[in-house]
Amino acid sequence: MSADEVDPGPDDGAAPARSTEVLIITGLSGAGRSQAADDLEDLGWFVVDNLPIDLLDKIVELGAGPNPFPKLGLVVGPTAHPEDVVAAISRIRRHHSVRVLFLDSATPELVKRYGSSRRKHPLDDGRSGVAETIERERELLEPVKAEADMVVDTTGLNVHQLKALIQDTFGDDSERGTMQIAVTSFGYKHGLPLDVDLVMDVRFLPNPHWIESLRPLTGLDDPVRDYVLTQPATGEFLQRFEHLLELLLPAYEAEGKSYLSLAIGCTGGRHRSVALTEEIAGWLRTHGHRPRVTHRDVLH
To answer: What are the φ/ψ torsions at residue 101 (nearest 5 degrees)?
Structure first.
């Protein structure tokens, strides 16, 4: 065998191939895509903002080429053709590990943001009001939203809270290869969270609001927590819900689910749901998870 025919085998001195982590950010206009892009850049990601969908495949191929970017964030700009976004995501997922983050927000909040910024909505055709245009975009993007690994409702988030969420989820110290879990307390009187996987209604428990000494407190205060946790039905509820999670969490992980969002609701979102959210989050921590906890309505 000639020297030219000798199989040199693996190069033991070669550096191991690096893979590129791809995150596609999409969602409603005004829901925080550009802010999320800035936050990712602060975390060391290479980010392309407001990317035309026709360039999505090409940028991913370049970013995962011979000298790949370890972390590539692509913010998809507004489009009237969401089927092109869905098709591009499907193509890229055949060859790369891709996560899709969809940013959502309630229409009244988006109207307020556009009013304060005095910017036109990118899909404004001059024939509809801002609210109608937002609802049209929401309907258009439903197929894209269905492709998302994680949906974030930014309605009640300021820029600092969104930054903290991006840091927790996509920073270097965030969990890799394990399902990330978010637990949110909320009040039904303020509306359901926009996007959650599991919702539990705990209004069957006695309401601390009707006890004068507990009314000004929240579920983060010991007197309210003790009141809620010592109710006869609370222990059985927690036991059964934890058993349900013991069944569901491994099954979701086996199906490749990256994010799971739980929402615990009571009437006002200040007492029962807060105390039980903290209790459920504590149980998750004892089982090796690092839940992100949010109390949406505790300040109402």
So the answer is: -110, 125
